[in-house]
Amino acid sequence: MPLVGFGVFQISDLDETQQVVELAIKNGYRLIDTASSYGNEEAVGRAIQESGVDRKQLFITTKAFVNEMGYRQTVQAFYQSLDKLKLDYIDLYLIHMPFGDYYGSYQAIIDLYKAGKIRAIGVSNFDEAKLIDLVKNVEIVPHVNQIEHHPHFQRPELLKFMAENKIQPEAWAPFAEGMNGMFTEPVLTEIAQAHEKSVAQVILRWNIQQGIIVIPKSTHENRIQENFSVFDFELTQDEMTRINQLDLKKPSMLDVNDPAEVERVYHYLENPVVTTLK
């Protein structure tokens, strides 16, 4: 699984989605992350077909949303995603949210994994309690947990549990969409200047050096290129420590334990374009 991928959340226009995914693949990205709830799997599939890159070199992730929970519903959702993406298998299939009958759904993806339709399975947005409970009750521990993770929300306890159980962390929204002054943090700005890099590149590098996969999104080719150019420098231990001190210890994007947020998740499909839900 590549360390740097390309996310397509909140790119609702299908032509634009296809164009930016083609740009991402052209610029070296091999991990593409989408979801049924994003409404753009077909465009991602077209981009894959048009890229000319061998399918075996690509790592494609998609997810089942809350309206697709339950064994039968997730199997149906999986095959719908497979058809939209025009693929024979999915590299990583995730339970998108820790709500509804995700136990039935997780058993479905275990069976699809055993059948060779999925190469790796996992979950998304599972906090410590939900993840511990799942791990203690399933045959195959999730290979990946895709979580909100950025300098303002660092989640050391969750990462420790995941490391102990060999669950790969993957950071969605690694910049927290610039919330809470992320791009103007003095510490990040100073470190970026020292390396002649952008704040975004420093954040991505900080994640990578912790072994955390990142899936930044952009619709601009220069930033698509910039976000991939993070392997030619290294943060010092002192710089890593200084960034670690920026932790606000609370989510900026999604709190799965807030009743209002849970309600928002269930209403997401009614108006997916205007929400910041990931």
Automatic annotation (TrEMBL):
Transmembrane segments: none annotated. InterPro entries: AKR, Aldo/ket_reductase_CS, NAD(P)_OxRdtase_dom_sf, NADP_OxRdtase_dom. GO terms for molecular function: oxidoreductase activity. Keywords: NADP, Oxidoreductase. Signal peptide: none annotated. SUPFAM superfamilies: NAD(P)-linked oxidoreductase. Its EC number is 1.1.1.346. Residues 11-247 form the NADP-dependent oxidoreductase domain. Pfam families: Aldo_ket_red (PF00248). It is an enzyme of class 1 (oxidoreductase). Belongs to the aldo/keto reductase family. This is Related to diketogulonate reductase (ARA1). It comes from Fructobacillus fructosus.
